[in-house]
């Protein structure tokens, strides 16, 4: 039998690219897909808003029925930031963890603002603890923890 040998060595055919996505826990992957869907749906809601339809929207304690109001546009911006971050994490972009850390800090600041400052601005004196903080804080901590490994790993494509 004639055995063919490669000039590159046996490890050449066994090259594998480590997936950054494997660094993400299952719950971040679930929320990644959830926010990708929300970002897509928000485009539809924006179009429906242009046609004059009323859409209920809420996030981080901010809510509106008018998609084209200032509040609605702020909510769209927040959802799109989360959608872009989710897409970057799923596609394993180099800047995804930095975007995720920004997204988490922005979300925490926004939630605290809505809990502490916004009631004084609106004159509605109620204090609501935002449950989003229960996910944003662990999300931020996990992203900070995997940041170094994310930067070391090569992209899969």
Structure, explained:
There is one protein chain. The two termini are 37 Å apart. It is elongated and about 80 Å long. With 157 residues, the protein is mainly alpha-helical. It has one domain (24-147). A hairpin with a 2-residue loop joins strand 1 (57-59) and strand 2 (62-64). Helices cover 59% and strands 4% of the residues. The longest helix is centred in the last third of the chain and has 27 residues, at 96-122. Strands 1-2 form a two-stranded antiparallel sheet.
> What is the tally of helical segments?
4
Instruction: Give me the Rg, rounded.
Output: 21 Å
| Strand count | 2
- Based on secondary structure, the structural category is mainly alpha
* N-to-C series of helices and strands: HEEHHH
Calculate the terminal CA-CA distance, rounded to whole Å: 37 Å
> What portion of residues belong to β-strands?
under 5%
Largest sheet: 2 strands, antiparallel
Strand order of the largest sheet: 1-2
The 3D shape can be described as elongated
Number of domains: 1
Instruction: Give the averaged pLDDT, no decimals.
Output: 86
């Amino acid at each position: 039998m004639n055995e063919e040998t490669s000039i590159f060595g046996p490890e050449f055919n066994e090259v594998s690219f480590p997936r950054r996505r494997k660094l993400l826990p299952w719950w971040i992957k679930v929320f990644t897909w959830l926010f990708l869907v929300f970002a897509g749906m928000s485009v539809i809601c924006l179009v429906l808003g242009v046609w004059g339809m009323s859409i209920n929207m809420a996030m981080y304690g901010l809510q509106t029925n008018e998609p084209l109001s200032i509040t609605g546009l702020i909510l769209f911006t927040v959802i799109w930031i989360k959608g872009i971050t989710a897409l970057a994490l799923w596609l394993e972009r180099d800047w995804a963890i930095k975007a995720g850390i920004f997204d988490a800090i922005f979300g925490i600041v926004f939630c605290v603002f809505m809990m502490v400052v916004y009631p004084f601005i609106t004159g509605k004196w109620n204090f609501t603890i935002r449950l989003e903080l229960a996910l944003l804080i662990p999300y931020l901590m996990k992203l900070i923890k995997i940041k170094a490994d994310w930067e070391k790993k090569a992209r899969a494509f």
